[in-house]
Amino acid sequence: xxxxxxxxxxxxxxxxxxxxxxxxxxxxxxxxxxxxxxxxxxxxxxxxxxxxxxxxxxxxxxxxxxxxxxxxxxxxxxxxxxxxxxxxxxxxxxxxxxxxxxxxxxxxxxxxxxxxxxxxxxxxxxxxxxxxxxxxxxxxxxxxx
Length: 145
Fold this sequence. Notes:
This protein is mainly alpha-helical.
């Protein structure tokens, strides 16, 4: 399941009907953190929701949890060690569910590499190199046929 970096107590408050209180907490944090405010606003825009928790609820539908075992192709997983949206432990969770994949290659970028943030922000050349090297290794011989 998708597990964004949301504190457990916030999820519990939401699950137990304290959405108004959660919205107040979100508003207070957004007032103090422009990055957080942007994340909430952007999430609401992307998911076409009216509240932060509505966005979180909308995200729950986007998971490979129940279908990952059906993936039979080669899989490349690229992740940032310090991703501010998606906890890096999800890499291991996803890998474990890929029981029938032909192969699984994982690259986790650390701070020293410059690619530890979400989508390897600021280090696109790193993931581009890894992606195209992987594509070439996996599919170059098939393209020659």
